[in-house]
Specification:
Shape: elongated
Largest sheet: 7 strands, antiparallel
Distance between the termini: 63 Å
CATH superfamily of the largest domain: DNA ligase/mRNA capping enzyme
Oligomer: single chain
């Protein structure tokens, strides 16, 4: 065969580059691959081999030049041609309406009508990058730096497949965007790091920033980073007339633009977009901490201009924070239904994860000592997804010297008797010595009639309080002896409400064994333990007769719970209560199956967010019935995360650990099978 001429080879190189760039664009920018990665790699390999043989054919925009050269000794500084600004932040709809008013008032002063439209985009949580192209070819990539001077990270940004080395039009432009990592990519990367005995990375943003600031481009290339470009900050030609048109133009040039931007006519539409994406964001494979709102019309942007540090025409509308700081104004005690005394921090009200929080549990004496929390301290408060607000740490640098260490009391007023408290042997908890106080009794009743136990609809805390005060009930079984006449005598009780309440009580006469056990307020026995006891023994009588040895060996029970259960069923007053209750309620017998025969045996599930078709309690009950184990926290041992609407941080952790995530329909399908 006659050797190919240099003209043939040049033509082959040209076609290879065009084909590789076309499929790179389809795969990494549009997410619509028409060729497998393996096939694309084969084309890249061929091009690489030709360029090795004919180095004079290598060009800066060749796909082979994404990873090139030895590690840099240090980063070079780059002075930005266009100053880099940061947006001011808004955290609530009220603040956004204030922003809208400011914009319109300013424009009216400038002789405009004050009518504006807005473009809303996701505020990607990554590393900002500024890209400079000359005649369509990437020249430099720089970090934001201080807004005037950044660092030259071209060698690393060239490794990112979604960043075009050559634009689809030969224009000279400066664009801005965000470098980020997929959550799924981080999960894979962390699995490998754990295997190699290395610490897993905390989150995608940290990895993105760290990867771009590596001196060796091969490290950045191995991290499979992504980009979203959102701003055309300079062009040698005319700029598009609107923000919306600008984003469309960036797409035409070949940049990857986040697909979820939208044009809105009013600030209410902006707020609706923000609310929608609070719920939808966890389903995306990238992180965003809010939305960016910009006046759409460029001529109005130019009229609005900038303040000393930020544009007037735009604002970052942040999603509700999961961590905030606030001040501990007091520490008080709450007495639970089992007499356990829990310290509660009263906080300066603060907005966290979408709701205003003014209290947080401090759990026990040991936790207060561990945190060294004092009244007057500034603390970091966390509320992640569906987790109860928790104090993470104290900001000790904020102390003034007026704060005093908290002294654990010897008495608590809401305990019975003289208010004395005692430490529970072998535990961190303290409890009331006298556990017969009105405060404790009413909490037991609240729990007994609640949805986790007998679920008596219409029998809320206020009605329980009245029934106890009027001495119509003193024990759980008294609820089933209430008469219509008794209730009609009470204030604000009409005939219809009385009839409805009695119907609910009648319905509660049939109750499952786990719910019955849960309602009894046995120390240490919550819903999961109640289910474990019911599954193992099958009846109240069998549990009451069980020995300590039989109790402690049950998976999910153990010695502490076993001892508490044995003591509770051994107390004379509780024996009497059980006998009386079993005369008034019916506990249907359930077929006892071997756990190993059930379809979800050995599988651990964690639920997050809100399910539309069933409650959290119902979902957990169904999991248990099928042999599975519902858990409250995500770990490496979790098999499935069931994600409903407004999924919280459990979703992010599951992604990070590579846990299989089910949406509601997939979960229901699994239950049906």
């Amino acid at each position: 065969m006659t050797p190919k001429t240099l003209v043939d080879i040049k033509e082959r190189v040209k076609k290879l580059r065009e084909t590789i760039d076309h499929h790179r664009y389809l795969y990494h920018v549009l997410d619509k691959p028409e060729m497998s990665e393996e096939a694309l790699d084969s084309l890249k390999h061929e091009l690489s081999e030709i360029e090795k043989t004919y180095p004079e054919l290598v060009t800066p925009d060749s796909p082979t030049q994404r990873v090139a050269g030895a590690p840099l000794p240090e980063f070079q500084k780059v002075t930005h041609k266009v100053t880099q600004w940061s947006f001011n932040d808004a955290f609530s709809p009220e603040e956004m309406r204030e922003f809208d008013t400011r914009v319109k008032n300013f424009l009216r002063k400038e002789g405009e009508s004050g009518e504006v439209t807005y473009v809303v985009e996701h505020k990607i949580d990554g590393l900002k990058v500024v890209l400079t192209y000359e005649k369509g070819v990437l020249i430099t990539a720089a970090t934001r730096g201080d807004g005037v001077v950044g660092e030259d990270v071209t060698h690393n940004v060239r490794t990112i497949e979604s960043v075009p080395l050559k634009l689809r039009k030969p224009v000279s432009v400066i664009v801005e965007g965000e470098i980020w990592m997929r959550k799924s990519t981080l999960a894979t990367l962390n699995k490998e790091r754990v295997k190699q005995g290395e610490e897993p990375f905390a989150n995608p943003r940290n990895v993105s920033a760290g990867s771009i600031r590596q001196l060796d481009p091969k490290i950045a290339a191995s991290r499979k980073l992504e980009s979203f470009i959102y701003d055309l900050s300079w062009s040698e030609g005319e700029l598009p007339e609107s923000q919306f048109a600008e984003l469309m133009y960036l797409r035409e040039l070949g940049f990857k633009v986040n697909p979820h931007f939208a044009k809105t006519k009013t600030i209410d539409e902006v707020i609706a977009y923000w609310k929608k994406w609070q719920k939808e964001m966890p389903k995306e494979d990238y992180l965003a901490d809010g939305v960016v709102v910009k006046v759409n019309e460029r001529k109005l942007q130019e009229k609005l201009g900038y303040t000393g540090k930020a544009p007037r025409f735009g604002i970052a509308f942040k999603f509700p924070a999961e961590q905030v700081t606030t001040v501990v104004e007091d520490i008080v005690f709450q007495v639970g239904r089992t007499g356990v005394v829990t310290p509660v921090a009263h906080l300066r009200p603060v907005l966290v994860a979408g709701s205003t929080v003014s209290r947080a549990t401090l759990h026990n004496e040991d936790e207060i000592k561990r945190l060294d929390v004092r009244v007057g301290d500034t603390v970091i408060l966390q509320k992640a997804g569906d987790v109860i607000p928790d104090i993470v740490s104290v900001v000790t640098k904020m102390r003034t010297g007026k704060e005093k260490p908290f002294m654990w009391p010897k008495k608590v007023d809401t305990c019975g008797g003289d208010g004395s408290i005692e430490r529970v042997p072998g535990e961190s908890a303290w409890r009331c010595v006298d556990r017969t106080s009105f405060s404790i009794q009413k909490r037991k009743f609240y729990h007994f009639v609640g949805k986790h136990a007998l679920d008596i609809e219409g029998l809320g805390p206020k009605i329980i309080d009245v029934l106890l005060e009027q001495k119509l009930i003193t024990s759980f079984d008294d609820l089933f002896t209430l008469k219509r006449g008794d209730l009609l005598e009470l204030p604000r009780f009409a005939e219809t409400s009385v009839d409805n309440l009695l119907a609910s009580i009648e319905k509660a006469r049939t109750v499952s064994l786990p719910k019955f056990l849960t309602g009894l307020s046995i120390p240490q026995v919550g819903e999961e333990t109640a289910y474990d006891l019911a599954k193992h023994f099958g009846s109240v009588d069998a549990i009451a007769k069980a020995t300590f040895a039989e109790l402690e060996k049950i998976d999910g029970v153990g010695p502490v719970v076993g001892k508490a259960t044995l003591e509770w069923f051994g107390a004379p007053e509780n024996k009497k209560l059980i006998v009386s209750l079993l005369k008034k309620v019916t506990i249907p017998k359930t077929e006892q199956k071997s756990a190993k025969d059930l379809p979800l045996f050995g599988k651990t599930f964690v639920l997050t967010g809100t399910l539309e078709s069933l409650s959290r309690e119902e979902a957990e009950r169904r999991i248990r019935e099928l042999g599975g184990d519902p858990s409250g926290s995500v770990s490496a041992k979790t098999d499935f995360l069931v994600a409903g609407e407004s999924a919280g941080s459990k979703y992010e952790k599951a992604k990070k650990l590579g846990v299989q995530i089910l949406n509601e329909q997939e979960f229901l399908k699994m239950l049906r099978k």
